[in-house]
């Protein structure tokens, strides 16, 4: 238990530590704090040979995102049944996730701005927090790097930017995502507005004609970014 406590201290809000340990006692599992992974914030794994359960959470998350991810993955641990065909984020998981999160939905654990958005999110939780832009945005305010890392929402129509070393031009906004043109392969992608991007140095960028999407344009792709497919 000391090992689990030491892994949680400084990672989740202080008021949530005892509850997190309680979940670990009720539903035993190996708990690992992993290095940063771009494809996910955490995951749950079951080893049928050893009949063991493992929950991992990324080390770089702010305390509120870490706690949400921890409970998300513990819910997977609780509802898992070997050889079951139930959906990973189906009714059983949603119900258990809501049940496990409920004791944490109070101002002693989350700040008011996060609590309001999270409470609404938990009425019908998605498979990933990435599917809820409002929740992602409010949680991002507590990331250490937020102030210096721009997001796609800050890019105006027609401007270019880098995402994962690929250069795009923002064409138009479609609700919570933006239609963008990959300048290398000339394909269009829908990218989350809260994706972290790197701006292009305007002085080093040659002007090019603005591309306007039409109904006859090529198939729109959905590209992954550091906020998509974060949970398994």
Automatic annotation (TrEMBL):
It comes from the Bacteria. Residues 205-232 are annotated as: Disordered. This is SprT-like domain-containing protein. It comes from Roseivirga seohaensis.
């Amino acid at each position: 238990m000391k090992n689990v406590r030491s892994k949680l201290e400084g990672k989740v809000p202080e008021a949530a530590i005892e509850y997190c340990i309680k979940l670990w006692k009720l539903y035993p599992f190996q708990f690992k704090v992993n290095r940063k992974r771009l494809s996910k914030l955490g995951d749950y794994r079951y080893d049928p040979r050893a009949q063991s359960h493992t929950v991992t959470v990324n080390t770089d998350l702010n305390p509120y995102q870490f706690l949400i991810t921890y409970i998300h993955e513990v819910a997977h641990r609780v509802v898992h049944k070997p050889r079951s065909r139930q959906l990973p984020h189906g009714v059983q998981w949603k119900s258990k996730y809501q049940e496990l999160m409920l004791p944490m939905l109070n101002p002693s654990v989350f700040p008011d701005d996060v609590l309001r958005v999270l409470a609404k999110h938990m009425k019908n939780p998605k498979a990933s927090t990435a599917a809820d832009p409002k929740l992602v945005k409010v949680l991002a305010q507590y990331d250490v790097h937020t102030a210096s890392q721009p997001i796609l929402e800050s890019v105006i129509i027609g401007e270019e930017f880098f995402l994962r070393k690929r250069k795009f031009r923002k064409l138009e906004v479609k609700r919570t995502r933006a239609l963008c043109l990959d300048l290398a392969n000339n394909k269009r992608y829908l990218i989350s507005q809260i994706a972290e991007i790197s701006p292009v140095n305007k002085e080093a960028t040659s002007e090019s004609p603005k591309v306007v999407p039409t109904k006859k344009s090529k198939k729109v792709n959905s590209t992954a970014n550091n906020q998509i497919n974060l949970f398994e």
